[in-house]
Amino acid sequence: MNRPPLARQRVLDAARRIVETRGAGHLTYEMLAEESGLTRGGITYHFPTKDGLLKALIEADIAQWQEAAQAQAADAGLACAKAARLLGHVRCNLAENDEAHRRFVSGLLGAAMADPGLLDPVRAHIRQEFADWQWDTADLERYLLLLAADGLFWNRFFDLSPLPPEARPRLAALIEQKAKAMAGPAAGSP
Fold first, then answer.
1. Core-most of 19, 48, 71, 120, by most CB within 10 Å?
2. Is 96 exposed, middle or buried (0-12, 13-18, 19+ CB in 10 A)?
3. What average pLDDT score do residues 42-63 get?
């Protein structure tokens, strides 16, 4: 029996909406069927287990995030590919007003705490992303900036930052400035 080619994506979209609004703990096949308009059989054809569905959601989120980071990196016009990737990552991490993504990550955190294996796609992505790093002084400095951006993301995520809201864009600009300085001259510059 052939399944409509968009059925898998409909399931993922519906699952994402449920995770964003209710959390991964409330994600059931019944709720998915109602939200996606597909039958339970249609859903289980693509995702026989909830674990597989959650991993697919995480993989789709990584792909979407990676696409945005690559676009940000390309817009930076930096000659150094590592610095461009770093800048794309920093800009995505520090993006403002992404409440839907924040709710999605919140919805998955509890499931990832109960089953750390759900983060295997993230671990694989990170290994791939840093496979060409030599971890020399320049790479360590890039990673330090990445950790700073990650820290700002999680501080904002959990509302733990002592940083006044008006200072956050200045700090983000400082991180970007340091990342660009590590890249050397911009592409096309003398």
1. 19
2. exposed
3. 93
pLDDT one-digit tens code per residue, 97-139: 678 888 888 889 888 999 999 999 999 999 998 999 999 999 9
Name beta bridge partners: 78: 186
Cα radius of gyration (the chain): 19
Closest to 91 measured CA to CA, from 59, 125, 58, 68: 68
Residues with Cβ within 8 Å of residue 48, at least 6 apart in sequence: none
Characterise 113 by phi-psi region: left (phi > 0), alpha (psi -120 to 50), beta (else): alpha
What's the one-letter identity of residue 121? Answer: P
CA 179 to CA 188: how far, in whole Å?
18
Cβ-contact 58, 35 below 8 angstroms: no
- Total number of residues shown for the chain: 190
Give tens-digit pLDDT for 137-149. 999 999 999 999 8
Query: What separation in angstroms does the CA of 9 have from each of 13, 26, 38, 69, 187?
Result: 6, 20, 11, 22, 38
Instruction: Give the end-to-end CA distance of the chain in Å, rounded to a whole number.
Output: 60
- Residue 186 main-chain phi, psi, to 5 deg: -70, 155
Type of residue found at 97: N
User: At 130, is the secondary structure helix, strand, or coil?
Assistant: coil
